[in-house]
Amino acid sequence: MPLDDRYQLAFRLYPYARSADQDAGHPVHHPVIVVGGGPIGLAMALDLGRQGIPVLLLDDHEGVGQGSRAICFAKRCLEIADRYGAAGPMLDKGVVWKIGKVFHDDRQVFEFNLLPEAGHKFPAFINLQQPYFERFLFEQIERERAKGAPIEIRGRNRVEGVTPEAEGVTLDILTPDGPYRLHADWLIACDGAGSPTRKRLGLDFEGRVFEDSFLIADIRMTGEDFPTERWFWFEPHFKSGASALLHRQPDGIWRVDFQIGWDVDRAEELKEENVRRRLDAMLPGVDYEIVWTSIYTFQCRRMRQFRHGRVIFAGDSAHQVSPFGARGANSGMQDVDNLGWKLGLVVRGRAPERLLDSYHEERAFGADENILNSTRATDFITPKSTISHVFRNAVLDLAERHAFARPLVNSGRLSVPCTYDGLSLTGEDALPGAPDRSRPGSPCPDAPLGHGFLLERLGGDFVLLTIDADAPETLEADGLTIRRVALKTADDPTGALAARYLGTATGAVYLIRPDQHVVARWARFDDAATRAALRRACARD
Amino acid sequence: MTDLILTPNIADPDGFYAALIAAHDGLSDKESAAMNARLILILANQVGDREVLAQALEAAKKSD
Predict the structure, then answer these.
(1) Spelled out in words, what is the top-level CATH class assigned to the domain A9-95+126-204+301-369?
(2) Is B28 an interface residue toward A (CB < 8 Å)?
(3) Which listed site, A13, A260, A293, A348, has its alpha carbon 20 to 30 Å from A411?
(4) Are A46 and A84 within 8 A, CB to CB?
């Protein structure tokens, strides 16, 4: 296959340049190679490069593809991007919304206000076109490279062959100057739902197909000042689809989404006059310009194993969900967050290779939770039997009049990170009276401190967080240095820290992983218990 | 006198809804209708209170 673009670029960021590796005459060795320059591949390179792990990213294009695609980036995803130093421009550019309206036919069923909890650096989520998200990650990679981070990106380098070996992987790569080979200790496949790497290795990707198609149109409203709200219609009176969604993005652009049925003629439906017919019925009298259109179908599925020896899958290549609930890119960023520190420790020889098995254990658990939630939303939005349709509409009818039915209305449950309850790396909960939300396995909830926020203080290493409790300033164990973050109730002007980490306890010691998940917690510092928890979190036991 | 509860009262509403729909898997429309009838009678017995049941019947009638 010639090296032609499969899609148009929104931003050309890494033009092809011949590498010395292509003239070496033998496969040059790299510790880590990432395949795929989407949001997950870029974040993976950023995470590893910031740790000082040399990483090479190969992409078959020269930049970011066009089309808004993923548009909802949730708080945890932004917190991860913030740890990488990339969240500022995302927040500046992104649209924050709080009000949602749900309609059935020509009636408003109810209106909701997300009323996000106060005391977090980031909102519940922002709307931002995927190309911007990717560009901001790339720009952070450039800044890290300027500071010496060993990250290299090679555009128009298409992986054509993957040969796994006991201690690494050999890759066959095609470039505009012809083929060459590389060797890597570790290959991270971030090459999307259609993952060529997964197919080449003949690996499974089983799940459920949803027999429905969705037409997306991104439109620029000219003149209208629509409110920044999310509007969702079940069986809309304007008949443009079995459901419809209107959602704001930056640059005066709106995402419109129509559920148009399973058996559709894609080329016909994507003709501008046909897209306009649907849009005009929904937005009578409104002037708009069509920026991008696409038709998508989806499946909910995942690989049985995310790690295959020295080849590890992250993001959509490992798991795919329906778009309801924004669990695609958001969960992929959590994969990176989870894999980054583990691979870093293994590459540096600070943890055994089996630590990487916990990546599969934890993220497959997360993927199952995401698949469950997005499947339930999809079943509610697109009922597939007469009786499920009857129940769905009964819920909508009742929700109009009675509050009790509103929690049953499901047009997508917002992506929230999962808690690794009871999994291999999760340690003991020895802090009586402490809140459930920060139990071992949980992602640390943010909290405002006098200056800045808690998560900024935690950073990206193992830390010992103490609140009104004594502990050594540093702890040396297994070649790692654990830093103490010492806080007192005086550092907690709003009381959020105490509410989220102490509950009725008077002091607390938390051991926190580099991905800001809680390992274990205690009422007071105990050297032996802390060391045991750390060994467990590094799969040393 | 007890009043009919019309505010959210079901823990894990998504899980309950999924179980409700799954209970109808593989049933014909007629079998589903019969299943619903049995379910209503079981739930009505659980409620017991005639006044509450009267309010529930009223709430279930469409207003429009």
Answers:
(1) alpha beta
(2) no
(3) A293
(4) yes
